[in-house]
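Quick entry between incubations.
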Amino acid sequence: MNARENKLFMKKYQPFIKWVGGKRGLLKQLLEIFPKEFNNYHEPFLGGGAVFFELYSKGLLKNKKIYLSDINSELINTYNVVKKYPHKLINNLENFKEKHNKEFYYKTREIDRKKEFNNLTKIQRATRFIYLNKTCFNGLYRVNKKRQFNTPIGSYKNPNIADKDVILSASKALENAIISDKPFNEVINNTTRNDLVYFDPPYYPLNVTSSFTAYNENAFLDNKQEELFKIFEELHKQECFVLHSNSDTEFIHNLYIKYQQHAILMANRNINSDITKRQKIKELLIRSFKDE
Ligand SMILES: C[S@@+](CC[C@H](N)C(=O)[O-])C[C@H]1O[C@@H](n2cnc3c(N)ncnc32)[C@H](O)[C@@H]1O
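Done. Structure below.
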């Protein structure tokens, strides 16, 4: 393989969904700080899995045990279906692609308000999950208090609902991964010395307002961040390589004061439509280990 082919080949392993907080634009900066040699890999806030797919593409996960998890059981079901039944999933998605319109979107969205949701197979649930992810507003996964999906339809002209190549290559990358739905603190049950653990939790908010706290049941505030900090420290004691992305806030900065904190810069697309006036937003990558 020449360098260009190699680059194209490497690019193939990538997330098969959009995910809020996805790390795709930051991979180069992040990976510079990751260790190049480690034992097994753990990613307990998996989301779209951008970091996992990048490490896999670079061959850094060869012959290692890979533990991927997230608390979102619909998301994890989808990963397991991509891993085990990619062809059936692609067929279903092609079918959904043909039917896609506003009415079909809302009909599909409403299924989790009906009894029939419990009768769907794992493959049907994964099809619905990817279809909604590709066609909803900004790929935003949002559920109400009854855990019913409630993101409105997005305004895409031609959404890529059945992305065959990406799903097949993701399936290959996931072939040997152990994928489970569980809370992050269970990561510690499978870690051993020299393992690499990457934490990418929901970020500590830049402004904690009372309305934010009251209405955002998914908020990952002081208590949860402190619980995560304890796990970070335990893993450090176990001599794992621990990395943790979070917001550049006083709370996070102070919590991890004794650890090395790297600034990661990202373009903020929302602030200004004029590229030259866009500001860079800073976030943190905290690590438990010193330079190799
Ligand atoms: C910022 S996203 C991860 C983004 C991901 N790195 C990517 O590139 O797409 C945070 C993830 O944490 C998950 N999550 C939230 N609370 C959790 C918990 N207590 N345990 C495990 N996962 C959790 C959410 O479901 C979400 O997928």
